[in-house]
């Protein structure tokens, strides 16, 4: 059972926020159940199913073998038959063994059936690195999933959004991929982003899927990011403020649908755009955001846009090499300085 | 009256040190007896620390600080 303080200033980690949203939906909807590796008595290796097994039991919180194709395929079947499964792909990096179930079944069955067979399921999966877990446990792969039609894709940056987006995802009649960054979970060994542990209402609520948030307002520069990158942007914006520049920070929150309007409105105001993404530099979210701005007839950029993204290399294990490759506030500030110099 | 919040001696087995991974209440906030106030991680397992009494919380050990059993991590002012 996930207990928490009744105090008005109650804060939750993202892990607890995800578990609380799931528990609240399971209490009111008997069709909702959870499947995955170590989601039962252990409570999830990233803490996001903690307490669920004790409250709902082994029938509704099901530990699976290490066979992602089988249990994600089973979830598609259950969803097609009227249930509302939540399945966990422990690390997004493991998608290779189960992509047929995800992409050819989960994402497409609604279309293939002419809308007669909805697939209301949530695929939650962990992303990101920074704690030396090497190249097969540290990727983000946001662009990989957002690229494929037929699924909604959400990426919360804090516990409030995580709870609201999880509730919205469970209630959604479409398949939703819920990508949570490990550094935001409040689990010490993954590196803890303190800004992700925020005040969270106890009652159930939804955050609309497809709406970005303007996390900080500014006039001189638009910083667009998602997940852990939002916190790098906020630190960079703070540093730039001390230099006399005001940066606006946009938290995408959802990649599919993508809230292009909020990004365009901000860039129309600031005229400068830097996209920050822990996913690979090429063919990803950063390129999509820049294209979405540049292709719009109202585009009036004062400087060429820039991206601070992961280099196109396998993620290194060695801490110094991994930290070199990751986005951070210093790189964002440097990109802005370069932008001013280029102009 | 001031009451200490210390890491309970029976929170985990053995004498391994832990780390405060999250304060779930802001410094200076009012909490009720039994409220979950902090999480401590020991070798990748997380443990919960509750408020022993009601009162105003004053944090003395911040997130990421190392703690042992018996370490004073906060006080509560009733």
TrEMBL record, chain A:
InterPro entries: THDP-binding (IPR029061), Transketo_C/PFOR_II (IPR009014), Transketolase-like_Pyr-bd (IPR005475), Transketolase_C (IPR033248)
Keyword Protein transport part of the UniProt annotation: no
Stretches assigned to the Transketolase-like pyrimidine-binding domain: 12-187
Pfam families xref list: Transket_pyr, Transketolase_C
The organism's place on the tree of life at top rank: Bacteria
GO terms of molecular function: oxidoreductase activity
Cofactor(s) this protein cannot do without: thiamine diphosphate
SMART domains given in the database record: Transket_pyr
Gene3D superfamilies xref list: 3.40.50.920, 3.40.50.970
Protein name as it appears in the record: 2-oxoisovalerate dehydrogenase subunit beta
UniProtKB/TrEMBL annotation, chain B:
Keywords: Lipoyl
Cofactor(s) it depends on: (R)-lipoate
Lipoyl-binding domain segment(s): 2-77
Database matches in Pfam families: Biotin_lipoyl (PF00364)
Entry keyword Cell inner membrane: no
Name of the protein described by the UniProt record: Lipoyl domain-containing protein
Domain of life of the native organism: Bacteria
């Amino acid at each position: 059972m996930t207990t928490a303080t009744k105090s008005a200033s109650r804060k939750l980690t993202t892990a607890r926020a995800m578990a609380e949203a799931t528990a609240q939906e399971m209490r009111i909807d008997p069709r909702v159940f959870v499947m995955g590796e170590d989601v039962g008595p252990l409570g999830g290796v990233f803490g996001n199913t903690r307490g669920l097994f004790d409250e709902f039991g082994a029938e509704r919180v099901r530990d699976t073998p290490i066979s992602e194709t089988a249990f994600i395929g089973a979830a598609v079947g259950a969803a097609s038959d009227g249930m509302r499964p939540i399945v966990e792909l422990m690390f997004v990096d493991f998608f290779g063994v189960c992509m047929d179930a995800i992409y050819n079944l989960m994402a497409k069955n609604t279309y293939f059936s002419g809308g007669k067979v909805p697939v209301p399921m949530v695929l939650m999966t962990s992303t990101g690195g920074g704690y030396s877990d090497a190249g097969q446990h540290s990727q983000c792969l946001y662009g990989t999933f957002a690229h494929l039609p037929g699924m909604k894709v959400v990426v919360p940056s804090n516990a409030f959004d995580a709870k609201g987006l999880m509730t919205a995802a469970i209630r959604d009649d479409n398949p939703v991929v819920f990508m949570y960054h490990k550094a935001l979970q409040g689990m010490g060994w993954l590196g803890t982003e303190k800004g992700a542990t925020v005040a969270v209402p106890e009652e159930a609520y939804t955050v609309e899927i497809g709406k970005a948030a303007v996390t900080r307002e500014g006039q001189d520069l638009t910083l667009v990011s998602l997940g852990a990158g939002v916190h790098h942007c906020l630190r960079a914006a703070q540093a730039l403020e001390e230099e006399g520049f005001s940066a606006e920070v946009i938290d995408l929150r959802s990649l599919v649908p993508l809230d292009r309007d909020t990004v365009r409105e901000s860039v129309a105001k600031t005229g400068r755009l830097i996209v920050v993404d822990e996913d690979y530099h090429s063919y990803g979210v950063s390129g999509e955001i820049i294209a979405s701005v540049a292709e719009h007839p109202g585009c009036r950029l004062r400087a060429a846009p820039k991206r601070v993204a992961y280099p196109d290399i396998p993620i290194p294990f060695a801490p110094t090499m991994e930290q070199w490759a990751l986005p951070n506030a210093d790189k964002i500030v440097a990109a802005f300085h370069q932008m001013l110099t280029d102009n | 009256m001031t009451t200490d919040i210390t890491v309970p001696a029976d929170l985990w087995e053995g004498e391994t040190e832990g780390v405060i991974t999250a304060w779930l209440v802001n410094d200076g906030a009012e909490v009720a007896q039994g409220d979950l106030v902090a999480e401590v991680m020991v070798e990748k397992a997380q443990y919960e620390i509750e408020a022993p009494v009601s009162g105003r919380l004053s944090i003395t050990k911040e997130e990421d600080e190392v703690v042992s059993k018996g370490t004073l991590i906060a006080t509560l002012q009733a």
